[in-house]
Amino acid sequence: MKITLDKSIGAATVRLSKKVTRIINHHLKPYCITTEQWSVLRTLYECDHITQKQLSERSDKDQATLTKILDLLVKNGFVERIPNPNDRRSFFIKITEKGSSLSEELIPFLENIYGIIIEGIPDEKLTIFQEVLVSLEDSIQHLLDHQTERRN
């Protein structure tokens, strides 16, 4: 039986993503934050005081998912919503001191975890893996853009 691309690429990618999420969530649990929340907080740490729409685009989260994540981050004191003086319907999202402090602690912590994950994999293979990931992401983005164009 021939292994299909769906199984060798699609299913394998999903399995890997789930396992990475599971191990990172395990390590983030003591910090009361999930991988989904961390990806948003990290984005804000890198580019603070942006609109929710900009944050949605930069963190690759749809508006509904991002709103739920932000509600939890606000509740935990990691970010705050600031009314946009130019548009009453929108908010700027700003990382708090508590959120910045957590980010500064988590960045090297997670770098260490990922270092353990890739331990023993030669640099050349990691470079190829990263190049393939970028190519796949670009290809998928092209397909998504094409779908959007067809709907309009």
List the helices and strands and how they pair.
Layout (H helix, E strand, L loop, with lengths): L4 H24 L6 H12 L3 E2 H8 L3 H13 L3 E6 L2 E9 L1 H21 L5 H29 L1
Antiparallel strand pairs: 1-3, 2-3
What does this structure look like?
The chain is globular. The chain has two domains: 5-119, Orthogonal Bundle (Arc Repressor Mutant, subunit A); 122-152. The chain has six helices and three strands; from the N terminus they run H-H-E-H-H-E-E-H-H. The chain is mainly alpha-helical and 152 residues long. The protein has a three-stranded antiparallel sheet. The protein is 70% helix and 11% strand.
Compact overview of the structure:
The protein folds into 2 domains: 5-119, Winged helix-like DNA-binding domain superfamily/Winged helix DNA-binding domain (Arc Repressor Mutant, subunit A), CATH 1.10.10.10; 122-152.
